[in-house]
C-alpha cells in the first residue's frame, strides 16, 4: 500500500514539474509587417521662448514728486501725447527755502540795477555818459530781470507743478511718448518718484508697446543653430492656445552663445508674420519649429526598423517562410521616420520584431 502511495506522489510531482516547465516557456511573438509608404520628411530645429513686443518703452519722469493721479488703466490704447500720470512736486524744506530766497536775492539785484539804470539814463540824456556805458547798464538790467523772472517761475513750478510761458503750458504731467498699449503699471497714487538724471536711472512708471509688432524670443540648441539661417519660415505654437498655429520668420540669430546649466544655447528672434486672428499677449510661453529642409512625396519607413552593421543599413523582409536582411540607402530623417532612397519599393513589407523584454 505504501509503495502505491509513493508511486502516485512521484507521478504527481513529475506532472507538476512538466506543467510548470511548459507554461514558463512563452511562445515567440510573431513578426509584424510594416509597409513602405510615401510621405513628407522634414528636418526641423526647435526653439523655446516667449512672445514679446518688438519695442517696449519704459516711461520715466524727469521731475521728482508724488503721483497725484493716474490717468489710464492697464490694457488701454494710448496715442502720443496722451496724459499718463500727474506728478505733484514734493520739494524738501531746504529746496523750498532756497527757491524762496533766490527770488528775494534776484529782487534785490533787480532793484539796484533799476536804480542804476534810471540814474545812468539821466546822465546819458545830459550827455555826461557815453552810449557804451548806457548799453552796458541796460544789458545788466535786462539780465537781472530775466534772472528774477526765472526764480519766480521755478518757485511756481515747484509749488504748483504747472506754469504757462510764451502761450505754452508747462506742467508736471507725464505723457505717452508713442502709440501703443499699456502693458504694466509700476507706481500708484501716493507713490514717490525719483527722477531720471545723468546719475540715476529713475523710477519706472509704466511700460507700453505697440502690440502689432511682436517677436518670438527664445533659445535654440547649439546642435541646431548651424542649420538655421535668417529668413527661414517658422511655425510658432502658443502654450495657452494649443489649437493655434502662428506663422513666423527668423529675424535674428545672436552670434554669441550662453550657458544654461550644461547646455549651450543661442538666442533667436522670430518675427510674428501672421497671428491667424488670435489675440496674442506679451509673455505667452511658446515653442517655435524652424523647417530646415523638407522632402515631399518620398518613400518613408519608421527609423526603428533599420539595422546597422559595418557602417551599412539593413531591413528584414520575408521571402516565403524565411526572413532575410536587405541593404537599403536612406536620406533625410525627422527622428521618427526616415527617407528610403534605394533598396525598397512602395508598398513593400518590412518585418518588425517585437521589443525585447528588460530583465
Notes on the protein architecture:
By secondary structure, the protein is of the alpha+beta class. The protein has 4 domains: 32-40 and 296-352, conserved putative lor/sdh protein from methanococcus maripaludis s2 fold (Beta Barrel), CATH 2.40.420; 45-54 and 211-295, Elongation Factor Tu (Ef-tu), domain 3 (Beta Barrel), CATH 2.40.30.170; 56-87 and 173-209, RNA polymerase II/Efflux pump adaptor protein, barrel-sandwich hybrid domain (OB fold (Dihydrolipoamide Acetyltransferase, E2P)); 93-168, Helix Hairpins, CATH 1.10.287. The chain contains 4 helices and 22 strands. Strands 2-13-16-15-14-17 form a 6-stranded antiparallel beta barrel. It is rod-shaped, with a radius of gyration of 42 Å.
Amino acid at each position: 500500500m505504501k509503495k502505491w502511495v509513493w508511486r502516485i506522489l512521484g507521478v504527481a510531482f513529475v506532472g507538476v514539474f512538466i506543467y510548470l516547465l511548459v507554461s514558463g516557456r512563452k511562445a515567440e511573438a510573431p513578426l509584424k509587417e510594416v509597409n513602405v509608404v510615401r510621405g513628407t520628411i522634414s528636418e526641423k530645429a526647435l526653439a523655446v521662448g516667449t512672445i514679446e513686443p518688438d519695442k517696449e518703452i519704459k516711461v520715466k519722469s524727469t521731475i521728482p514728486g508724488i503721483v497725484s493721479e493716474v490717468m489710464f488703466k492697464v490694457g488701454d490704447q494710448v496715442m502720443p501725447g496722451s496724459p499718463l500720470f500727474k506728478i505733484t512736486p514734493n520739494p524738501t524744506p531746504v529746496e523750498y527755502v532756497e527757491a524762496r530766497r533766490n527770488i528775494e536775492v534776484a529782487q534785490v539785484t533787480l532793484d539796484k540795477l533799476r536804480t542804476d539804470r534810471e540814474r545812468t539814463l539821466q546822465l546819458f540824456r545830459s550827455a555826461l555818459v557815453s552810449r557804451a556805458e548806457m548799453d552796458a547798464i541796460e544789458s545788466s538790467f535786462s539780465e537781472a530781470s530775466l534772472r528774477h523772472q526765472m526764480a519766480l517761475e521755478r518757485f511756481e513750478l515747484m509749488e504748483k507743478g504747472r506754469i504757462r510761458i510764451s502761450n505754452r503750458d508747462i506742467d508736471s504731467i507725464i505723457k505717452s511718448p508713442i502709440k501703443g498699449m499699456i502693458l504694466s503699471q509700476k507706481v500708484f497714487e501716493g507713490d514717490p518718484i525719483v527722477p531720471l538724471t545723468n546719475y540715476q536711472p529713475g523710477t519706472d512708471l509704466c511700460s507700453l508697446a505697440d502690440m502689432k509688432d511682436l517677436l518670438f524670443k527664445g533659445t535654440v540648441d547649439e546642435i541646431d543653430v548651424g542649420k538655421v539661417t535668417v529668413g527661414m519660415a517658422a511655425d510658432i505654437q502658443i502654450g495657452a492656445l494649443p489649437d493655434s498655429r502662428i506663422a513666423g520668420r527668423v529675424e535674428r540669430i545672436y552670434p554669441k552663445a550662453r550657458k544654461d546649466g550644461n547646455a549651450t544655447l543661442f538666442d533667436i528672434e522670430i518675427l510674428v508674420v501672421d497671428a491667424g486672428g488670435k489675440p496674442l499677449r506679451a509673455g505667452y510661453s511658446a515653442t517655435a519649429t524652424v523647417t530646415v529642409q523638407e522632402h515631399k512625396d518620398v518613400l518613408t519607413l519608421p527609423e526603428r526598423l533599420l539595422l546597422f552593421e559595418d557602417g551599412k543599413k539593413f531591413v528584414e523582409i520575408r521571402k516565403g517562410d524565411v526572413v532575410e536582411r536587405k541593404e537599403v540607402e536612406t536620406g533625410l530623417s525627422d527622428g521618427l521616420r526616415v527617407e528610403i532612397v534605394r533598396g525598397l519599393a512602395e508598398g513593400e513589407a518590412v518585418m518588425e520584431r517585437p521589443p525585447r523584454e528588460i530583465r
